[in-house]
Amino acid sequence: MLTILGPGGTGKTRFAIEVARLLAEEADGGTVFVSLAPLRDAELLLPAIADSLGATAADVAAIAARVGDKRTHLVCDNLEQLLPNAARRLSERATAIPALRLIVTSREALRVQGEIELDLPPLDSDEAVALFCERAQAVRPDVTAGETVARLCERLDRLPLALELAAARTKLLPPEVLLERLGDRLDLLKGTRDADERHATLRATIAWSHDLLDDHERRLFARLAVFRGGCTLESAEAVCDANLDTLASLLDKSLLRRRTGRLGEERFWMLETIREFAAELLEEGEDAVEIHRRHAVRMLEIARSARLSDEETEADAHAVLAERDDLRGALDWAEENDPVFGLELAVALQAFWNTAAPEGGMRRLEALLERAGPVAPELHADVLCVYAGAADLAGEDELGRKLAEESLRLYRELGDDQGVATVEHMLAVGAWRREDWAGVRELTEDSMALARGRFVNIETSGYWLLGQLALADGDLEEATRLTRQSAEGARSTGWSWWESGQLHELLMLALRGGDLEQAEREGLAALKLEREQENRLWALYTIAGLAQGALAQGELERAGILWGGAEAEGERLPRWPSERARRGGALLDEADPAFAAAYETGRLLDIWDAAAVALGD
Q1: Which residues fall within 8 angstroms of residue 114, CB to CB, at 6 or more apart?
Q2: Is the pLDDT of residue 500 over 60?
Q3: Which residues of 168-197 are buried (b: 16+ CB within 10 A; e: fewer)?
Q4: Residue pLDDT, tens place only, 174-207
Q5: Mean pLDDT of 428-439
Q6: Among candidates 498, 509, 492, 493, which has minimal Cα distance to 583?
């Protein structure tokens, strides 16, 4: 474990990434970066690491299985806010997984066995002057690397972030004036908050830059700290009463940054050190409670606008994936301040839990239920339904079944036909896994009778179960027809999560019928959607099916790589042994040396690397 130490703004993250790059050849198991800045609870450390490594369970055994005996580098960025509890947890994980090499950035040492500390020094004089001039010339071309600039850089202790903040101000103040004014501020503030001189310098620089803001800029600067992962213009307006002129001014002064989000949208964000300073101002302000509530309400609006729990309209999980850090922040706030609101938000995220984070959904719902106390029957039924779905997808069959049955009882008491139809479908899927065909038929027929002509998505999903009943009766043609009807129904309403699952089922049916070209088409279409949705579970199943098809076509190397990737991912899942048998366990009997070598290569891949191979990327 290498811990890179230093106050915020010294370049620890950049340095850690460069170290990892230089050591990449030693990491035959890969290099993974995990940002811990948005986290505030040490209990979330292991799930964050497990998710970044691609382990499907947040425990040491799952992570160890994922890493295996291949040297793997894990860069854990911004650990300090999780100390001291995180230090012990991280040390235990490192000890239990010898192949894992940790590169940690923190403002203080972890003080654990095996840790090597590196106190990152400031830039040297020439580097500091070069950085200042590069940034300053972007706004004031006549800035040159003279004696004044060199003295200014020394006064700023050659700290990268402090240099950038000061350089942004040269648009209005030449270096000579900047040195005089900033020097006074440094003399006044240095050492008042932190014994580390560099930290004091940086805080003083940020404070000086903040003091030069007008009232509107100061108010917005503090309020924007409520966003953990940055925000869109619309969110800044809704939560912080932002306007374009004030945002542009904060951008000009390097207190705010701008980047393009995953959906092509513009997002505004702060470096973590600056956000920490702004957050202190937010919490000291009179409007802190109101801003946190507005933020939580905005996250609920985003979840609902994405229609992740709306029965008959298009769902857009991408919008939620872009906001996941702030959704976590809103749920954290709700857990402490308004758990009933938190349950409403967790319910609105139903399809997000199903697609990308079933274990996370389970943990969150359990914690909120414990804190909320008695809730309205309507909300309680919805919560149990969402909880049951997450538990089922996480492999907790009995828990999922118990929760679903209680949810069904409540929905029936409430006379909620949509809720009843939804849960009956869920229970029918459980019966399908147990090959209880009579139970599948009874539950599916009742669910579809309630849904027909009223609840489009429930009716759509029912066609797949009818197809499975047809398959159990030996009618492959009818099973294919009904499954395709389910896929096309999902496509027509924009329900891409269900569509991807049905395309995978069509892959499996085509393999059963010997139509290898059709199987490949369906599988690749499914995998593209699953990758967009970050749906690891269904991507695993699709890749396993594509491996079967490749083997049947004599593509031994491709088959081996894909099957190796599927096996490495799947062996951490409780259901994998049965799914493996259904999805081509016989592939391991293939004795060809080319297949065997490719299989070992595939086992080194993350599931998304395997997906890239399958898709020809």
Answers
A1: 1, 91, 94, 95
A2: yes
A3: bbbeebebeebbeebeebbeebbeeeeebe
A4: 999 988 888 776 665 444 444 456 667 778 888 8
A5: 94
A6: 509
Burial of 610 (0-12, 13-18, 19+ CB in 10 A): buried
Coil, strand or helix: which one is 267? strand
Using DSSP bridges, classify how beta strands 2-5 and 116-119 pair: parallel, antiparallel or unpaired: parallel
pLDDT above 50 (res 213) = yes
Q: How far apart are CA 235 and CA 244, in angstroms?
A: 12
Tell me the C-alpha distance between 409 and 389, whole Å.
16
Instruction: Report angle CA 559, 484, 407 to the nearest 5 degrees.
Output: 100
Domain ranges of the chain: 2-119, 125-211, 215-285, 294-470, 516-614
Please state the rounded mean pLDDT for residues 73-77. Answer: 95
Residues 6+ away with beta carbon under 8 Å from 40: 81, 82, 332
Which residues fall within 8 angstroms of residue 275, CB to CB, at 6 or more apart?
225
On the question of pLDDT at 152 being above 50, the answer is yes
What does the pLDDT average to over 391-401?
91
Asked whether residue 353 carries a pLDDT value surpassing 80, the answer given is: yes
CA dihedral 369, 371, 376, 382 (to 10 degrees): -20
pLDDT of residue 480: 98
By percentage, how much of the chain surpasses pLDDT 90? 60
Cβ-count burial 303-326 (b if 16+ within 10 Å, e if not): bbebbbbbbeeebbbbbbbbbbbb
Identify the CATH number of the domain defined by range 2-119: 3.40.50.300
Matching CATH number, 294-470, of 3.40.50.150, 1.25.40.10, 2.10.109.10, 3.30.930.10: 1.25.40.10
pLDDT at 372 over 50: yes
State the fold for domain 215-285: Arc Repressor Mutant, subunit A (1.10.10)
277 contacts 203 by C-beta, under 8 angstroms: yes
> C-alpha distances in angstroms, 177 versus 182, 190, 207?
8, 20, 17
Q: Give the per-residue pLDDT at 308.
A: 45
Which string of DSSP letters, residue by residue, matches 521-574? HHHHHHHHHHHHHT-HHHHHHHHHHHHHHHHHTT-HHHHHHHHHHHHHHHTTST
Q: Is the pLDDT of residue 407 over 70?
A: yes
